[in-house]
Amino acid sequence: MIWYKDSSGTGRDRYHHGNLREALIAAALDLIAERGPAGFTFAEVARLVGVSPAAPYRHFRDRNALLVEMATRGFQQFEAELVRAWDDGRPEPLRALVNCGRAYLVFARQQPAYYSAMFAACPQPETESELARTSEGALALLRLAAEALCANQAKNQRPPSRMVALHIWSLCHGVASLFLNSGEGLPQPLSMTPEDLLEAGILLYTRGLGFGGGEPIPPKL
């Protein structure tokens, strides 16, 4: 993608669209990062790219279609990061699961526009759509982790792996939403980082299920 300086005096760079589709996605990500998940219109994306308001419709049906594409790409990157953190369950499943949680927070912090498109701005995916498949892929990785954690338990004592995966996802998403994306902080500072807080939550949860293991939980807040 080639960039050139906006001559309008706004100080904003504009896109020279050798690839209009990619330019539209990049512009929408910029606007979401700047203004939040509801922070752009289709017309604003076109204006930022430097094309007519009708031009984006050659690539996307509407604003929602653009959001779906952004969310799909975000989930693809997100799943790749979780797979890398899981590392086939090494050095052992519980530690690998904690690493996945930390990777979740890293992604939310480093890719806030994609994260917003995935979880805050995108419409509910249609069944069997590419977005539905890619979002399910990330959950499937957490379900694999849950199955590895449960492997040594008696079958009649194993909790449903999908339930465990959803609980872990909820912990990760809650910490990310509260401490990484709000921008407001808490009424009083914490004595723990978001990563340590999440790790403590995962260890408490898994110990409650009887999995055991893991390092000592950090000191209380």
Question: Quick recap of the structure?
Answer:
Helix content is 59%, strand content 4%. It contains eight helices and two strands. Strands 1-2 form a two-stranded antiparallel sheet.
Just name the CATH architecture of the largest domain.
Answer: Orthogonal Bundle
Q: Write the CATH fold name of the largest domain.
A: Tetracycline Repressor, domain 2
Indicate the structural class. mainly alpha
The CATH class designation of the largest domain is Mainly Alpha
Mean pLDDT score: 82
Tell me the fraction of residues in β-strands, as a range.
under 5%
Number of helices: 8
Using the alpha-carbon principal axes, give the shape: elongated
Q: Low-confidence stretches at least 5 residues in length (pLDDT < 50)?
A: 1-12
Spatial gap, N to C terminus: 47 Å
The domain tally reads: 2
The oligomerization state is single chain
Question: SSE order, as H and E?
Answer: EEHHHHHHHH
